[in-house]
Amino acid sequence: MQNTLLITGGAGFIGSNFILEWFNKELESATTIVNVDALTYAGNLMNLLELAHHPLYRFEHADICEAEKMSALFEQYQPRAVVHFAAETHVDRSIVGPEAFLRTNVQGTFTLLQAAMKYWKALPAADRGLFRFLHVSTDEVYGSLGPEDPPFSETTPFQPNSPYSASKAASDHFVRSYYHTYGLPTLTTNCSNNYGPYHFPEKLIPLMIANALDEKPLPIYGDGKNVRDWLYVKDHCSAIRRVLAEGIVGETYNIGGCNELTNLQVVHTLCNILNTLAPRKRGSYEELITFVKDRPGHDRRYAINATKIERELGWKPAETFETGIRKTVQWYLDNRTWTDKVRNGSYRQWEALNYGQRA
User: d(Cα 325, Cα 234) in Å, to the nearest integer?
Assistant: First the structure.
């Protein structure tokens, strides 16, 4: 077994931030990172250009559903851990095309578990005790909360309400079963809504920033009062590193940002920051806010109880929403070329399909 991490979905939003942050940590610079990504629409190697010639970085263009390829990668790189980010993640896309979510999130996770278990069983006994399979999941598996309901804890029953969250719930159950049935040393994290650099612009925050700068409408579903807990992506990455290093095998850890806000509050915050950093020639960005037809099965509220990871592993977020969102807006202002390149023809077709029918 080598000092190597196998990262699935490392060209995506959270995965690429995790890899960049890992190499920014001096004490972890001796670890080889193998990034396994199928490069679907949301995978972007531009995120990792600064690592293209790094001696400890490897990229493997592969689909986690390909069993033979996954087994070959384990055999080739002999990793000490897997950090499994690869997933289809956008609820709206899961409503239009749920099959892709079943394939990647369920079949892909199963295939990866099978390859990991085969590799793990063949390791020497001492190495088997050190190996970890860390599965990155979402708070959406828990369903929707009412205004007065307590936040999700690790023991909250699963009640997924979209094809996306159902597929992630299924993958969580498979990971849990491989620990309890086969002894594979797994860890699971369930995070709240992430935001930050390299976020694909179909999601709320980057979409609002990009549309505002393009003088396009800022579409808000329903009444805009759906509540989410917002977690700065670099805080999420630090939490995953902590769980990977110190988490108890077989356990689940909820990771939250302690920032419950309605979608409308988030958009007004973005508009206020943009009004200061990149003011319009006429008027304010709030004038672009447009309410559109709500999406089916739209969960009303998510909230994370993250006391377990703080109590047991000593982690808590470093950023407040106020500090994290300002850094995020500034990043998008400084990196408009990145946004322009990822918003290509296929993305614009999706945007027209999804929001055109809600006008």
Answer: 12
Residues noted as catalytic: 139-140, 164
Residues 14, 136: Cα–Cα separation, whole Å: 10
Indicate whether 283 belongs to any domain: no
Distance CA 261, CA 229 (A): 6
pTM: 0.93
326 token code pair: 């300002």
Domain CATH code at residue 125: 3.40.50.720
Q: Decide the pairing of beta strands 260-262 and 227-232.
A: antiparallel
Longest Cα separation, the chain: 68
> Which tens digits make up the pLDDT trace of 289-316?
999 998 888 889 999 999 999 999 999 9
Backbone angles phi, psi at 22, to 5 degrees: -60, -45
- DSSP bridge pairs for 319: none
- Whether 331 maps to a domain, the answer reads no
Tally of structural domains, the chain: 1
Per-residue pLDDT of the chain (359 residues; tens, 9 = 90+): 899 999 999 999 999 999 999 998 755 558 999 999 999 888 899 999 999 899 999 999 999 999 999 999 999 999 999 999 999 987 888 898 999 999 999 999 999 999 999 999 999 999 999 999 999 999 999 999 999 999 999 999 999 999 999 999 999 999 999 999 999 999 999 999 999 999 988 889 999 999 999 999 999 999 999 999 999 999 999 999 999 999 999 999 999 999 999 999 999 999 999 999 999 999 999 999 999 998 888 889 999 999 999 999 999 999 999 999 999 999 999 999 898 888 764 544 534 544 454 45
Q: Do residues 32 and 60 touch, judged by C-beta distance below 8 A?
A: no
Q: Is 222 left (phi over 0), alpha (psi -120 to 50) or beta?
A: left
Whether residue 341 is contained in a domain is answered as: no
Which residues touch 183 (CB under 8 Å, ≥6 apart)? none
Is 347 contained in some domain? no
- Residue type present at position 35: N
Query: What sign has the CA pseudo-torsion 259, 188, 19, 168?
Result: negative
Please give the residue range of the domain that contains residue 105.
4-194+232-257+301-318
